[in-house]
């Protein structure tokens, strides 16, 4: 028997329950993973408040890192091969907040040896979101991109991936996060009154694209006043105003977004293994303390990513 977190009904985090559950053996095209770390993301608890064609009980957790404990007949993982005892990363799955889980092999990749389990379990949801933001805004070498909410999980990944593309990056954050932004290769500017003037001073040649991870009015103002073409702006927090301005929205539940994000998983793992992509970690929690982990993330300033450790 495994332990796993489920939502027996729709609602807030308070409805979550840690229960015992059977883990079915893997069929062809599936593998079973002994979870060593599970990523904690806002999407993990937000989706239990929404009706998206699913019915409770809802399993929780989209990304994990762990060790293969069984493979279905004639089955290889997405990165090729795979054997019992191999360290792996899996995204996008459902039910990762567990001690063990059986998942499609197409969503499982070898874990880079240089990346530990908590980091690996937090790499792909934010990383693939960041990759899609750069893709839809068509960021190219030599261009300057403005990233709002640059110290968050998606923002930090955007900064690093934009630099790997050869772009110049300006990131907005509070002053206390400037060193983190610089580590990720960005020029840091403080959000708040006067932001647009600070961005103009930092990028006298102009801004080619805007990536918004926070959904603030300030971010939309930047699109309207700094960007000649709003088609080169994207948000992960859509609103009536962002839609009216013409800012494209992306989300993991959209088929186009999901397909692109799946296509870049191996590339991101490769970069992480080469030391080109890092994930700031705040802390880890025991699996049984998932509600405490959620509380930290919901606070809005966890200081990095959070992982559950079974």
Features:
globular, alpha/beta, 16 strands, seven-stranded mixed sheet, 310 residues
> What is the number of E strands?
16
Count of runs of 4 or more consecutive helical residues: 11
Question: What's the average pLDDT?
Answer: 96
Which of globular, elongated, flat, extended, rod-shaped describes the shape?
globular
* Helix and strand sequence: EEEHEEEEEHHEHEHEHEHEHEHHEHE
Q: Class by helix and strand content?
A: alpha/beta
Helix content: 25-40%
The parts where pLDDT drops under 50 for at least 5 residues are none
The largest sheet is: 7 strands, mixed
Question: Could you characterize the architecture of this molecule?
Answer:
- The protein is an alpha/beta fold and 310 residues long.
- Helices cover 29% and strands 25% of the residues.
- The chain contains eleven helices and 16 strands.
- The chain has helices spanning 42-46, 117-120, 124-136, 153-164, 178-183, 195-202, 217-226, 240-245, 255-263, 265-273, 290-298; strands spanning 2-7, 17-21, 30-40, 58-59, 64-71, 87-90, 100-104, 108-110, 144-148, 168-173, 187-190, 209-212, 233-235, 248-249, 281-286, 305-309.
- The strands form three sheets. Strands 3, 5, 6, 7, 8, 15 and 16 form a seven-stranded mixed β-sheet that branches. It has a six-stranded parallel β-sheet with strand order 11-10-9-12-13-14, sandwiched between helices. A three-stranded antiparallel β-sheet has the order 2-1-4, with no helix packed on it.
- Strand 12 (209-212), helix 7 and strand 13 (233-235) form a beta-alpha-beta unit.
- Helix 3 (124-136) packs across helix 4 (153-164) and helix 3 crosses helix 9.
- The longest helix is centred in the middle third of the chain and has 13 residues, at 124-136.
